[in-house]
Amino acid sequence: MNILENDVERILISKEQIEEIEDRMAAQISEDYKDKNLLLLCILKGSVVFFSDLMRKITLPMQIDFMKVSSYGKGSQSTGNVRILLDLHREDFSEVDVLIVEDIIDSGRTLSTLVEYLKMKGCRSVKTCTLLDKPSRREVEFIPDYAGQIIPDEFVIGFGLDYAEKYRELPYVGILKPSVYTK
Ligand code: IMP
Ligand code: MG
């Protein structure tokens, strides 16, 4: 057993359940993007695990790229400040249909800012795909185009998601023991 698992209150979504969610989402995306020019965009670092599964499950030609944004300080509360730490560079944005891949939507600030930003750059279309969604936490109105699973207002870790840069490597989505971030 990984020592990190001592900090997990319980498993919220098992790796088998995640696999089913991914299969369903990839099938839908493969259908919807048949006649498009898909650019699958990974938002570092949290979505890297979900992204790498999704890119192998979507049955269409695609390009991939990466952006890194930061909306979080050290703790478990969003600051609402979205900074671009790694930007997208291309000659021509007007030829791509961007699908942004996120791990989780919380306040909605990261994705609503990114969608506006990529539209401003001139992308032909910009849509969003998230593994997890916490709609009860929204501070700005935002509805993703593809959402894997709606979850309650709990702080979750694993499958790419971190708390203070830890737990990303756990193979499932788990609820973090509150004692970890209240001590
Ligand atoms: P938003 O801008 O508030 O929607 O925040 C989205 C980002 O917050 C995600 O990409 C995560 O990095 C982070 N985040 C939100 N909720 C959680 C959580 O429960 N666990 C880990 N990271 C989270
Ligand atoms: Mg993130």
Defining key terms:
single chain; 183 residues; alpha/beta; Rossmann fold; six-stranded mixed β-sheet; three-stranded antiparallel β-sheet; 25% helix; globular; binds inosinic acid; binds magnesium ion
What this model shows, in words?
This protein has helices at residues 15-32, 48-57, 109-120, 178-182; strands at residues 8-13, 38-44, 63-72, 78-86, 97-105, 125-133, 146-150, 156-157, 173-176. With 183 residues, it is of the alpha/beta class. It has a single domain (17-151), classed as Rossmann fold (3-Layer(aba) Sandwich). Strands 4-3-2-5-6-7 form a six-stranded mixed sheet, with helices on both faces. A three-stranded antiparallel sheet has the order 1-9-8. β2, α2 (48-57) and β3 (63-72) form a beta-alpha-beta unit. α1 (15-32) crosses α2 (48-57). It starts with 7 loop residues before the first strand and ends with a helix. The mean pLDDT is 94. Magnesium ion is lined by residues 46, 103.
